[in-house]
């Protein structure tokens, strides 16, 4: 049995997986399908100064199926509502390699949630908590392991580097200035 990737309509991955599981229980796919998976990973998001852990699809629009591929199975799977097709050519879907599968499972089993930042080095951010609240600065450095960000802010007219937690800053979008005709 090999892992194949089904391309599904984005947002319908779970519905497709549920339909495939139902077909397996009805015996319409025989013993050729072993496992059906929509891979998720845990991410740590910061929004408006609040941390939260969320489950995100690793590959939106795709469902993994461990199976023995036959012409009958391929035809049956392509007929499922929400399925666009297999990854690979239409005549010969390409199975995933063992390395690719082990990387996917390693990412799914990751204990520490991956940090999903809304800003990068060079972006302008606003400090939302702490002694520099309301200060605007540019991101100089991001230290993922320590969960720290270093930004340059103006203190008494001088640029000063400040180290803050990820949760203390958020992206800053200046209000668009209405430009009139001169």
Short note summarizing the structure:
The protein has 182 residues and is α+β, with helices and mostly antiparallel strands. It contains three helices and twelve strands.
What does this 3D model show about the protein?
This protein is α+β, with helices and mostly antiparallel strands. It folds into two domains: 114 residues, NusG, N-terminal domain (Alpha-Beta Plaits), CATH 3.30.70.940; 54 residues, SH3 type barrels. It is built from three helices and twelve strands; from the N terminus they run βαββββαβαββββββ. The chain has a five-stranded antiparallel beta sheet with strand order 11-10-9-8-12, with no helix packed on it. β10 and β11 form a beta hairpin. It is elongated.
Total number of beta strands: 12
Helix percentage: 10-25%
How do the SSEs run, as a string of H and E?
A: EHEEEEHEHEEEEEE
Envelope shape: elongated
Mean pLDDT, all residues: 84
CATH homologous superfamily heading of the largest domain: NusG, N-terminal domain
CATH hierarchy class name of the largest domain: Alpha Beta
Q: CATH topology of the largest domain, what is it called? A: Alpha-Beta Plaits
- Assign the structural class, choosing from mainly alpha, mainly beta, alpha/beta, alpha+beta, or little secondary structure: alpha+beta
Termini separation comes to 70 Å
Note the total helix count: 3
Strand order of the largest sheet: 11-10-9-8-12
Q: What is the total domain count? A: 2
Instruction: List the quaternary state of the chains.
Output: single chain
- List unreliable stretches of 5+ residues: none
Largest pleated sheet: 5 strands, antiparallel
The name of the CATH architecture of the largest domain is: 2-Layer Sandwich
